[in-house]
Automatic annotation (TrEMBL):
Pfam families: Ribosomal_L4 (PF00573). Part of the 50S ribosomal subunit. HAMAP family: Ribosomal_uL4_B (MF_01328_B). GO terms for cellular component: ribonucleoprotein complex; ribosome. This is Large ribosomal subunit protein uL4. The gene is rplD. The keyword Ribonucleoprotein applies. Residues 43-87 are annotated as: Disordered. GO terms for molecular function: rRNA binding; structural constituent of ribosome. Belongs to the universal ribosomal protein uL4 family. Forms part of the polypeptide exit tunnel. Keywords: Ribonucleoprotein, Ribosomal protein, RNA-binding, rRNA-binding. The keyword DNA-binding does not apply. GO terms for biological process: translation.
């Protein structure tokens, strides 16, 4: 089991914690980590590009002129693609880019991401994060004490003061133990976890 120092909000060491090998000490599966990141990015794509084909454009029901004898080329509708206001040939339609990963694969990918952060020394455990009122300056001071700027902060409970304090810092994102994902873990330089959240993560994902 890996031993990690537990720090307080001032950045001082107040103890140590043993991390479970079942979550923070697994063999890193890079393929599944890559798949998890791709899946999340693909699932976030809207795919809402849309144009109308000739069957979807309103109007054009009447033949513009008779078939023969006018000197014009034959035309069946004013909504054909060659007409102004006509439909688009092979028009793009909304597309679903998402693809599914199995639960076991997602779990392995998440544990692999957490393990990689521990191996790189980029996981910081804090005894607790509590603020009497929402204060961005106070939260920034805590981040400075922990010697990190770009961090994913994992909370055990949805503490409104902590979340609001971090909200205006563009390089910090807060998450609960049930909302952490592979992309965020890898995106931020450091993962800051409350001591209570470590126990919850181990209980859920072990």
């Amino acid at each position: 089991m890996a031993k990690v120092s537990v720090l307080n909000m001032e950045g001082s060491e107040v103890g140590t914690i043993e991390l479970s090998d079942a979550v923070f000490g697994v063999e890193v599966n890079e393929h599944l980590v890559h798949q998890a990141v791709l899946s999340q990015l693909a699932n976030n794509r809207q795919g809402t590009q849309k144009a109308k084909t000739r069957s979807e454009v309103s109007g054009g029901g009447r033949k513009p002129w008779r078939q023969k004898g006018t000197g014009h080329a034959r035309q069946g509708s004013t909504r054909s693609p060659q007409w102004t206001g006509g439909g688009v040939v092979f028009a793009p339609t909304p597309r679903d880019y998402s693809f599914k990963m199995n639960k076991k694969e997602k779990r392995i990918a998440l544990k692999s991401a957490l393990t990689s952060r521990v191996n790189e020394g980029k996981l910081i455990v804090v005894d607790e994060l509590k603020f009497e009122a929402p204060k961005t300056k106070e939260f920034a001071k805590v981040m400075a004490n922990l010697n990190t700027k770009k961090a994913l902060v994992v909370l055990n409970e949805n503490d409104a003061n902590t979340v609001k304090s971090a909200k205006n810092i563009p390089t910090v994102k807060t998450a609960l133990t049930n909302t952490i994902n592979v992309y965020d873990i890898l995106k931020y330089d450091t993962v800051v976890v409350e001591k209570a959240a470590v126990a919850t993560i181990e209980e859920v994902y072990a």
